[in-house]
Amino acid sequence: MSHSSAPDREPSGRTPHRASRAWLYAALAVSVVCGALVLYSLSGLVKMPSLTSESAPVAPSDERSSLDVAVARTAGGPGEWNNWARVFKYLSEELEMPLNIRYLSKEDEAASIIVASDADIAFICAHQYLDLTDVSEVEGVCVPIIDGTTTTRMWLIVRADDPATSMQDVRNSVVAASDKSSLGGYAYLMYLCLERDLAPSDFFSEVRLGDSQESNMSDVLSGDIRATIVNSAQVASWDMSEFKIIEESPPFGGPPVVVNSDMPQELQDRIEGILIGMNVESQLAEDSVIDGFVPVDPGDYEFAKVLRDSCGHHDHKP
Q: For residue 182, is pLDDT > 90?
């Protein structure tokens, strides 16, 4: 009796050799395809040098792809922040490189942060300028012309309807000043008292420290305090008709723009030339109090040194 032949099978029901080889070939094919896909995806991340790489020009070691800018103080107060943003944008475009802007809110720590971060450019107050140039960390580049002048003054102010005409008239009153590290705050208050051989705690009923100039001015208007000290360059955008100046300091240099002392001279000159040559009328808002820039004159900061020395807590080190 004849029987139809059945396919040979491995013992114990295992897959035939031919089927095993088919599965093996399929697995190898999948591996090859997957490997090709992986290599393709990595080709965008890892690139071999081009044939012309050896002859391509090498960038100078001091060439920068971007600049770090520390902003500790810009003249004009909050009303000018948008215009200062336009200044940064203009500088970036003219230099043809991005600026990494870092705003420093704590004035007493700004100088040390600028040194530690090795900032390329910094917008700083007169106090920080003195401290940083004393240790040769920065070079002054230019200073903004604010409302027609490159200098600023310290003012002791009261409300416009206050009968006081001098500091003597606000004895036993509450007075406020900004942070102790500010030459426009506690330092000028100390200067006024030292001139009269007085201690602030004995002359005033209370001395409040720490709030911003803008906050203190609002407190004067509300009657919460009687007098406060402001920096004329910082309140240029305020309506000062609401206030009366009862004490005024000699003028001294405004908040300057400085660069790192290690910056190549060519780049320093470019930054100075761009800012001084800036056409502010075409770049800034029509009502801006920023009228342009001129080179820094170190001699303008002599009275700033007097103010700094009036406050005993300053050690003059960044």
A: no
